[in-house]
Write a structure and sequence with these properties.
The complex is a heterodimer of chains A (366) and B (314). Chain A is 51% helix and 10% strand. Chain A contains 15 helices and eight strands. Chain A has helices at 4-7, 26-35, 49-58, 65-79, 94-108, 141-168, 177-191, 195-211, 229-233, 241-247, 258-263, 268-272, 287-299, 314-330, 346-365, and strands spanning 16-18, 40-41, 84-87, 113-116, 222-227, 251-254, 304-310, 334-339. In chain A, the strands form two sheets. In chain A, strands 2-1-3-4 form a four-stranded parallel beta sheet, sandwiched between helices. In chain A, helix 2 (26-35) links the parallel strand 1 (16-18) and strand 2. The radius of gyration of chain B is 20 Å and the shape is globular. Chain B starts with 9 loop residues before the first strand and ends with a helix. Chain B is α/β, with parallel strands linked by helices. Chain B has a four-stranded parallel beta sheet with strand order 2-1-3-4, sandwiched between helices. Chain B has a four-stranded parallel beta sheet with strand order 6-5-7-8, sandwiched between helices. Classes of the chains: A alpha/beta (366), B alpha/beta (314).
């Protein structure tokens, strides 16, 4: 829907686009917006307690937490100068986020253009490209495809290095070495303009990671993290769970990221083969992947699992009975964490410490 | 009703969730095949307590109730039928809980030894007919007989639904205070959650009209106009049904259970878009609480507002 304010203006207006803050994926999205859509990308401030507060203030009470985060982050984007908001769609409540968010923001009095992907659901994936029709300066279709592929490559590189980061950061001998290398990667990706620069930044980070001295036992404690798409990936939303756990000296594994769930998703049917005794049907958009992932970690002898979700996330609540079954079958402890709008970490730290002590004791005894 | 000789197995159907939508179809289907059907008793405090203990704490009240009904059926039948309804097309999906229901139920009752009949219904998974037929086939009924039974049952269900809609919509012509209740059928008909709220309203002399018992096609078309990306079939029926008739009513009651996923967003949208239309709206969220006094007070004041607006004596 285009706001009146903008239709009156000449066609040449350069859109100032923003996307809700979501983990490190705003970097590839900014690259895509600037190079394929040739619009300006507006970076809103990172998620903070204030984001959560304004989001929660204007959201319905019982809605899932990511809606509140996304709403808060959209308000901050509009405050930072954006005039076009992009809202992705999804198979759960996420599919209705866009419309309700637009209604709330307009009721508040904001003026903007909304690109709601959910409006373009027709059953064919390519129809989502129609959402970009309004960008008149966009590059030629061939170039558009190239940039899109580069964007995916960037996301893949970031995911790979992030996963490497959480596996090793707990064992570095010089505190902060991993974080420094990873932050360099993020800032280099922000400035990368073409595939060569993207690959160079990735190669540099990979070398830097391999040179950092690590002191790791032969059998370190390994914990698998799984759960709801947004909360499990976004470090602010899960109160930096992975770093907190890694700092205790744990190898933290997480399968769920955009690379695995979206870019190289093995598909419902192929993932289902290994878990067909646990569930007969697809239970929800990320349920098959999470159940598969839990079983995979359990079979590989992990010391514990952590299931992360936002308050009220229906598909993740529904897989909890199945996870309990896995926990029973493989005798593996599972910690269930539900995140709401609170941003204090003391309570979480206490629970994690108790979980850590328990899995460490089990490892010594067993 | 043509009753065939009962010789087959006993099929248990929990009186919760989609039973209130497809109950006639399901019971009639098995009756036609010659199976015995056991439907659990209406919800009471014990059902809910049992269900709450079994289900995850964060599941919605209706799912907890469902688990209580399943528990009540265990040992009383050979199979319990738990079909998964996923979707009817684009922007016509069901709440994800209905998609996961068979697997959730099987996981919760994994140690009970109870056999379940399940199927998955939706685009790419098979139609409702195929789903029901496959369940019948899995316990040894012939395909032809099952198809015949389904078609006969579907016809009966359709007629029964049309009769209920007619009866419900006739209420708009009644005198006095008319209140539209926008609630899922499994909330409005459940004796322990929505049922007593509706009963309370009736006792206050209010004509209670349900938004979900409506011409489904017209309701879907109306809701697409109201909110283009609203994607839940049942929410769309309720919203559309309500919008098609709100001018004939004196008040709107948005009744949902805690924590209903679609309602959490749809109710907010309804209130945002309808707050200026001059009709009192009450949102009531039901939880597994013991007392009803709180709900009663809110309903009374809601009715008082309607009376005042109509210029009636309090």
């Amino acid at each position: 829907m285009i706001d009146e304010q903008f239709t009156a203006e000449p066609r040449r207006r350069k859109k100032k686009v923003a996307f809700p803050v979501f983990s490190h994926y705003n970097i590839p999205i900014a690259y895509f917006v600037e190079n394929a859509l040739r619009a300006e990308y507006i970076n809103q401030p990172p998620l903070t307690r204030r984001t959560m507060e304004i989001g929660a203030k204007y959201s319905p009470d019982m809605v899932c937490t990511p809606f509140k985060t996304v709403l808060g982050s959209s308000i901050e984007a509009l405050e930072a100068g954006a005039d076009t908001l992009i809202m992705p769609m999804g198979l759960c409540r996420l599919g209705y986020y866009g419309e309700l968010e637009e209604q709330i923001l307009r009721d508040l009095g904001y003026h903007f253009e909304m690109i709601n992907m959910a409006e373009y659901t027709t059953g064919r994936a390519l129809d989502y490209l129609k959402a970009f029709r309004g960008f008149r300066d966009r590059v030629s279709p061939v170039r558009f495809g190239q940039v899109a592929l580069n964007t995916l490559k960037m996301a893949e590189h970031l995911d790979e290095m992030e996963s490497e980061y959480y596996k090793n950061v707990g064992f570095e001998t010089q505190k902060g070495a991993y974080e420094k290398a990873f932050k360099t990667l993020l800032s280099e990706m922000k400035n990368a303009g073409d595939l060569a620069a993207i690959d160079a930044a990735y190669a540099k980070c990979k070398t830097a990671f391999s040179e950092i001295p690590v002191e790791k036992d032969e059998f370190p404690l390994r914990v698998g993290i799984l759960g709801e798409y947004f909360t499990v990936m976004d470090a602010f939303s899960n109160c930096d769970l992975e770093k907190m756990l890694a700092d205790m000296g744990v190898e933290v594994h997480r399968w769920m990221n955009v690379t695995h769930r979206n870019i190289h998703y093995p598909g419902e049917k192929n993932l289902h083969v290994r878990i067909s005794d646990l569930c007969s049907y697809e239970m929800g958009p990320t349920s098959t992947a999470n159940i598969w992932c839990a079983r995979d970690y359990a079979e590989r002898g992990f010391d514990g699992l952590i299931h992360v979700k936002s308050a009220g996330c229906t598909p993740e609540i529904d897989i909890m009975p199945v996870l309990r079954e896995i926990s029973e079958q493989y005798d593996i402890p599972v910690l269930y964490l539900t995140y709401d709008t609170e941003t204090g970490t003391a309570g979480l730290l206490t629970r994690l410490e108790a979980f850590y002590d328990m899995i460490r004791m089990r490892k010594k005894v067993v | 009703m043509e009753q065939k000789k009962i010789s087959g197995p006993t099929i248990g159907i929990p009186r919760a969730l989609l039973y209130h939508r497809y109950g006639v179809l399901w019971t009639e289907f098995w009756n036609q095949l010659g199976a015995r059907v056991v439907v659990s008793k209406p919800t009471d405090r014990a059902t809910l307590d049992e269900g709450s203990a079994l289900a995850e704490a964060e599941m919605c009240l209706s799912v907890k109730t469902y688990m209580g009904h399943v528990k009540a059926l265990i040992g009383r039948c050979d199979y319990i039928m738990v079909p998964a309804y996923t979707s009817f097309g684009i922007r016509r999906t069901m709440c994800l809980t209905f998609q996961a229901l068979p697997d959730v139920t099987e996981a919760i009752f994994r140690n009970s030894g109870q056999k379940f009949l399940t199927c998955s219904i939706g685009p790419g998974r098979g139609s409702a007919e195929e789903g029901m037929v496959s369940m019948a086939e899995s316990i040894g009924y012939g395909r032809k007989a099952a198809v015949r039974a389904y078609r006969a049952a579907a016809k009966k269900a359709e007629a029964a639904y049309a009769a209920r809609v007619k009866q419900n919509e006739a209420l708009y012509k009644k005198d006095g205070i008319r209140v539209i209740v926008a609630a899922h059928s499994y909330v409005a008909e459940d004796a322990f959650s929505g049922g007593y709220i509706l009963e309370m309203l009736r006792k206050m002399g209010v004509t209670v009209i349900r938004a979900d018992l409506t011409d489904r096609k017209k309701a879907l078309a109306r809701s697409a106009h109201f909110s283009p990306t609203m994607k839940w079939e049942m929410s769309r029926e309720i919203t559309g049904g309500m919008l098609n008739h709100w001018k004939e009513a004196d008040g709107l009651l948005l009744l949902s259970v805690y924590p209903c996923a679609p309602d959490s967003m749809v109710n907010d949208m309804i209130i945002r878009k309808m707050e200026d239309c001059g009709i009192p709206i009450l949102t009531l969220t039901l939880d597994a609480q013991n007392g009803v006094a709180g709900a009663e007070t809110r309903l009374e004041s809601f009715i008082d507002i309607i009376r005042m607006k109509k210029g009636m004596r309090l």
